[in-house]
Amino acid sequence: MSKLTIPAGYRMPLTNNELQRAIELIHEEFQHSLSVRLNLHRVSAPLFVDGSTGLNDDLNGVERAVTFDIPDVGTDGQVVHSLAKWKRLALKRYEFKVGTGLYTDMNAIRRDEEVDNLHSIYVDQWDWEKHIDVTNRNMQHLKDTVRDIVGAICDTSAALRNAYPVLTFKPEREIHFITTQELEDRYPDLTPNERETEICRQYRTVFLMQIGKTLHSGQKHDGRAPDYDDWNLNGDILMWNPVLERSFELSSMGIRVDAAALDRQLTEAHCDHRRKLPFHQMLLNGQLPQSIGGGIGQSRLCMLLLGTCHIGEVQVSLWDQETVEACEKAGITLL
């Protein structure tokens, strides 16, 4: 059985039909607000990529991509884990100018995901990427972008509460910025997940920075692939989830590696073999635009704003029978 938490007395305040219309509203409002705030335009995105190009997101480096042969093309396709690297190449191919960018609906399959209230093998998110000038590769630009994204979340929440007054969740607009090292220093005896919960319990909206770096303890707060985010200029947007009473990750994002950062991080991560891949060659040779980007969970955002306790209430996926039966017994509808 997957890990399952059912809060005492939990009830979804909307009917199943109202829930679907509310999800539609969230998608419409958030996409509009995000695209206006960050100057993004929608593009189409791949469901799968050529596994030999190095374009697929390697996540923590151990997750297996869903792979299938394509006889008529003569190669193997890989269902994407995310579009972290594809988007940067798309900025070049689609000729996005500095200050403009793209967003897209990203659908992925993560077969090795450990499913629970927050995690599903089906992943849906808004993937976005923006062309920036080299002078924007700094912490201030990163923080300003985070404020724009949180602003779009808060605007969407306000529109949702106006349409469905029974929904009461109101995200905190003010953001607490903290690095993973500062968080370890504050809570040295807690696990990384416990640290995130405690900092979100206190500040409600948190941007946790510099994920992927080795901490003074010799451990990493969390893994991060070495070939898209600059580990000095990245982070996760976390919010307090009052239904599950824990921290809740909505977005992983960051300023992308330049040639120097990629060179350093490939060596540190023992991934020097990737240097020969086409995408990495282009980066090391300075042939791709400087960029900032990330992914924002669609089902995650719906969960938080609607106050559901399980991701299966807002998306269709597969669950083990014990989870299905436990949710049915508790009156929780898994789509």
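[next item in queue]
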Amino acid sequence: MARLPDIILFALENGLKIGTIADLIHYLSHHETLVERTFSKPVTSTHGEFMLYAYTDQTTGEVHLALSKGIISPEREVLVRVHEPLSVLDFLDVTSGRHRFSLDLAQKALASAETGVIVMLRRSESGQDILAALMETVAVKNPAAKWDSRIYGIGAQILRDLGVRKMKLLSSPRRMPSMTGFDLEITGYVANLDELA
């Protein structure tokens, strides 16, 4: 596997063009849409007023949700939480520890921010999946989820559709693929709510 400087030299010597993975993602994300916004309405939760959006996955028919607060513009940094996978248990057992930030805590964080978005990515959940999640012990909570590039792309397209370009993630810092192909920039992380005070 060659490094970029070697590839550039090889391309120049052989009259070839070069495209990066980010270029490919950028092209595909502008020409192939994985999700379509199919519904929106204002909602009120215990943490205030939000806009609720439903996005239909064009390949599976699954419906993903997003909550937004404030007026989102490409120039402004937006507080973002991507919650995946979304489960009915996330609403019933908010202290389960299944996620670093529960949906309740994410809404609380958005309530204190000027602008924010929570993307809730749904995967099919069987009765056995729910039972297994209920029976998890503390030792196995928050397992490292396997990275799913399709779900990653869906989340990025939802954020871009909502107008997000610069985002501070409501998450612990972690290594993740570049977002530049989706025209998204991660400006930082919020690991706990005390950092928002």
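[queue empty]
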